[in-house]
Amino acid sequence: MSTLELTKDNFDQVVTENDFILIDFWAAWCGPCRQFAPVFEGASERHPDLVFAKVDTEAQTELAAAFEIRSIPTLMIIRDGVAVFAQPGALPEAALEDLIGQARKLDMDEVRASIEKGKTQA
């Protein structure tokens, strides 16, 4: 599957219409971003059932600010509209595959319950 380019105009629609999205926050000038790009693209080919998307932090400053992206590349995973992972740094292929496997195994009912519990305690 080809990688989508996320913008402030299509972000909400993509998140609403898809239950598992991996997002690479990147910039053209970023060396580690360029190193991570083929790893991300390779994973998108191995996992055609998932949505792989990229956010150019230079062109989409509002999205980068909304997610408080301070370092790139940053990988984010959104499942069922919930950000379940966000971490800066270029991952090697094996680590990305392991992360995808862990995210697939998440019980989203438990995740949502945990979020609700956190809100009531705050």
General description of the model:
By secondary structure, this protein is of the alpha/beta class. The protein has one domain (4-121): Glutaredoxin. Helices cover 46% and strands 23% of the residues. The chain has helices spanning 11-17, 31-46, 61-66, 93-105, 108-121; strands spanning 4-5, 20-26, 51-56, 74-79, 82-88. The protein has a 5-stranded mixed beta sheet with strand order 1-3-2-4-5. The chain is globular and about 40 Å long. The model has no long low-confidence stretch (mean pLDDT 93).
List the helices and strands and how they pair.
Layout: E1 4-5, H1 11-17, E2 20-26, H2 31-46, E3 51-56, H3 61-66, E4 74-79, E5 82-88, H4 93-105, H5 108-121
Site (Contributes to redox potential value): 31-32
GO molecular function: protein-disulfide reductase activity
Family: Belongs to the thioredoxin family.
Q: In what range is the share of β-strand residues? A: 15-25%
The average pLDDT is 93
- Helical residue percent band: 40-55%
What composes the largest sheet?
Answer: 5 strands, mixed
What gross morphology would you assign?
Answer: globular
Examine the coordinates and then state which fold CATH places here, giving the name of the CATH topology. Answer: Glutaredoxin
Level-2 CATH architecture: 3-Layer(aba) Sandwich
Model regions low in confidence, pLDDT < 50 over at least 5 residues = none
Number of helices: 5
For the terminal residues, how far apart are their CA atoms? 41 Å
Q: Name the CATH class.
A: Alpha Beta
What structural category characterises the helix and strand content? alpha/beta
Radius of gyration: 14 Å
Strand order of the largest sheet: 1-3-2-4-5
